[in-house]
From TrEMBL:
Gene Ontology MF term list: DNA binding
Coiled-coil positions: none
Alphabetical list of PROSITE patterns matching this protein: HTH_LUXR_1, HTH_LUXR_2, RESPONSE_REGULATORY
SMART domains: HTH_LUXR, REC
Domain of life according to the entry: Bacteria
Membrane spanning stretches: none
Domain HTH luxR-type stretches: 158-223
Domain Response regulatory: 12-131
Protein name stated in the entry: Capsular synthesis regulator component B
Keywords of this entry: DNA-binding, Phosphoprotein
Length: 223
């Protein structure tokens, strides 16, 4: 479905999801963001591929799986879009919280990954802005699980001593992993540099790393 006429100079966004409420929610979040243009939406993989032939797209917000019989699985669809339209930044939105599925999706070097259970939809304008400038994004809940998985040498987290990061510690870690400095994070979150430094140190302590090099090594390969 084409949503409206395209505007010059704006980031063109297409939504691909077979749940009307998800499409509606995303549309409401993005429709008043002046830098973005909602170019269209699709409810199946076949309709998405058809839409991409007709409309320019900069960022694709794409579900991992569609219920329509005969639809491509998520990995196949992502690969197909990447091969046909390598310039498109793909942000995967999924209800699949399985760590194996998350790792498989991230192995395709998508621009972003958001679990629908993470409650991160309200941050979509920020996320789209980040991927537009070449940064990657993983929602804090998934990032925490992936970091634990990585720190446990990829053996899974079921027998690992659970590490619980506060929401703000997760936010600081996520923004730091995106390449932002402590000062930039403080400005973005409207908190003091001292507060951000403390939250970053607390997150590192909980993750069992003692310096920035170890922290970056622990999350290497997730972006």
């Amino acid at each position: 479905m084409r949503l409206k006429d395209l505007s010059q100079g704006k980031c063109q966004v297409i939504i691909a999801d077979d749940h009307p409420l998800i499409v509606f929610a995303i549309t409401k979040i993005l429709e008043n963001v002046k830098e973005l243009q909602l170019a269209g939406s699709a409810s199946s993989s076949s309709s998405l591929l058809q839409l991409l032939q007709e409309i320019s797209c900069d960022v694709l917000l794409c579900d991992y799986s569609f219920d329509e019989e005969g639809d491509s699985d998520g990995l196949q669809l992502i690969k197909q879009v990447q091969e046909l339209y390598p310039h498109i930044k793909i942000i995967v939105l999924t209800a699949h919280d399985d760590i194996v599925i998350a790792l498989r999706i991230l192995s395709l070097k998508v621009a972003g990954f958001i679990s629908k259970s993470s409650g991160e939809f309200s941050d979509l304008p920020f996320v789209i802005g980040q991927v537009q400038i070449g940064r990657s994004y993983i929602d804090p809940v998934t990032l925490n699980a992936l970091t634990l998985h990585q720190l446990n040498n990829g053996k899974g987290c079921e027998n690992f001593v659970e590490v619980v990061l506060s929401e703000r510690e997760q936010e600081v870690l996520r923004l730091f992993a995106l390449g932002m400095t402590v000062s930039e994070i403080a400005l973005h979150t409207q908190r003091s540099v001292k507060t951000i430094s403390t939250q970053k140190k607390n997150a590192m302590d909980k993750l069992g790393v003692s310096n920035v090099v170890e922290l970056l090594k622990a999350i290497k390969g997730l972006y």
